[in-house]
Amino acid sequence: MNIQRKYSLPNCTLLLEGLSDVTRAAQFQEMRPELSILVNAECYLSGYNQPLTGGREFFESLVRAVSGYAQEFLSTVPNPQAHNQESELVEFQKIDGNRHRLIIHSENAPEGFESHSNNSKRPPIEIDLNTVQLFDLVEAVDQFFADTQTLPELSLELQPVTRRYGGASQAVIRQAVPAAVGVSSLAVAAIAFNLIPPPQMRTPQPKPDEQTSSTTKSLNPPASAAATPIAAATPIAAATPTTPPTANEKPVVKDLEALLNTVPEITDPSQLRALNRQVYNQVHPAWTKRSGLQQDLIYRLGVAADGAIVGYKAVNKEANQGVGQTPLPNLLYNPANRAPIFNEPIAQFRIVFTTNGVLQVSPWRGYAKTPEVLGAKITDSNITKGLNQKLYNTVRQTWSGTPTFTRDLKYRVAVNKDSVIADYEPLNQVAFDYFRETPLPKMFNAIYGSNVAPPNDKEPLAHFQVIFKPNGKLEVTPWKGYQ
Question: What pLDDT, on a 0 to 100 scale, did the predictor assign at position 242?
């Protein structure tokens, strides 16, 4: 099986392609397959249309050169590992305080040449980076080392620089350190000044019986990535690489498809309907970058029974490239705040971030039949009739102002026996978009302290359809079910 791993930041993306060692995969039944055989490595840098590409030798050399040069830059002490042209494919040269030259030497001689002398090689590729680009590259390398399921045998060996040679100025440190916040980059900075001993860059491999959860804690929150149709959904951290990470900040997500093959799938229409609401309520307020999309971004989501988003996968190419414009990476559940996924049922949803700024969420396979509202219901007609009138009066008295919407806003509203609102749900897109023009959020917030709190399902409720019309009229009728 072809596997991809992607480690992204605003100015740099590392894309690794490879295979899994069958003998090792058979020993550990990983839900997220291990990329143990590297076939191709690509490094995309902002401002350059073409990626730097190569094989295993290129990638290992890039990792060593990046780490060595970052150490040299922070300490101002020369590091031969960053400039070893004789044995390395990748080297760095400092141009000035804010510019750095990345040099890539050819892995192979041009076709038709058998000589291995320097004259037979293709001219080296030279790319100039600024300091922010450099440390985004450092952070991307850090994401790779934090991923224990990719080339686990590859480790980073850093040698401390003697303190008496550490002559970096405070100005340089202030300039460079904010961009270098990852585990390996912080290690490079600390080792450069002999502040801490060289760290062990990889966490120990878990035992076979500990590899059933859908997420694992990362040494450092990945800064941005997307699951591709080929491989695992890699989580992404916040888009600002200057925020220092914490130990439990972001998880690393296992392969969504592999996870779905090992756990039951939630297919009950009523439960899917309730989870659909929870997904929308999580994503809708968090989606702040709604402009600039050239194509709809479509994803396949895995959601646990409590509404936690446990994985996502890009469905189209644009979604794979534009995941940083969505809030999905930051909405993945954190195992520090919730028990790990262990054979829990998973629901699948299709989520679309449209170019016109409208969010669409629907079950991946649709509804097998018309869903129903979960929970106990008040069915006595006399009680329901009285609650209908009380709900109308309450909403009518609190609904004021001139409507700006041009279509009916339709909601399902539930109240308890005391006519106190217990739940409300938009039924059409315009109801989602203009819910703040209704009194429902304030009524609900007064009880739960949140507009997106889960409904009270511990007592029977009476359900109604409430329609806010553009002409200011209000309709409240007994609930007859989803249409």
Answer: 31
